[in-house]
Design goal:
The chain is α+β, with helices and mostly antiparallel strands. It contains three helices and ten strands, in the order αβββαβαββββββ. The protein is about 20% helix and about 25% strand. The mean pLDDT is about 85. It binds calcium ion (2 copies). One calcium ion binds near residues 113 and 115.
Length: about 160
């Protein structure tokens, strides 16, 4: 659990982030990131569609700096598990951002991704974990999870230039 005393500081850090470009009014703004965090939990593919319908992408993270920003937001909002757009649904064992942003950075927890590549005669369609979430229990490091689980999620778009 996040202690009450940490929340104000983290919120200040998030809100103090300044940029020369703008995000939609109900989105959070990082240096090169506009971020929206869901208030409901849903399955990965539904999260992807909700983000797409807002002309954005299910969350992707391309650097340590971006990861720090996302993590700060999730800590401040006290989210438990949050879907990102990273998945190995297309090619088992090969994780890509679903909207085809190049993977330039990862922050997997120790032992993750844990279902990374099929082994043996695996015929159970649910035997694998193909969708990556940031979990509070892992200090928001990344892990592959079952895509049909109900998690919070975040969407991302680029800021518009002023
Ligand atoms: Ca997998
Ligand atoms: Ca896993």
């Amino acid at each position: 659990m996040v202690t009450q005393t940490r929340l104000p500081l983290l919120l200040v850090v998030v809100l103090a982030t300044v940029a020369s470009s703008t995000c939609p009014s109900d989105w959070l703004q990082g240096e090169d990131v506009c971020m929206w965090v869901s208030s409901n939990k849903t399955k990965w593919y539904i999260a992807w569609e909700v983000c797409r319908n807002m002309d954005s992408h299910l969350g992707f993270i391309e650097s340590q700096q971006e990861n720090d920003f996302v993590e700060g937001v999730l800590v401040a909002l006290n989210k438990s598990e949050v879907w990102s757009g990273l998945s190995d649904l297309k090619v088992e064992g090969s994780f890509v951002w679903w909207d085809e942003e190049a993977v330039t950075y990862t922050n997997f927890a120790d032992g993750e991704p844990s279902a990374n590549g099929h082994t043996g005669n695996d015929t159970d369609e649910y035997a694998d974990q193909d969708c990556v979430a940031l979990k509070h229990s892992n200090n928001f490091k990344w892990s592959d999870e079952y895509c049909f689980e109900d998690f919070y999620y975040f969407c991302r778009m680029d800021p518009s230039e002023e």
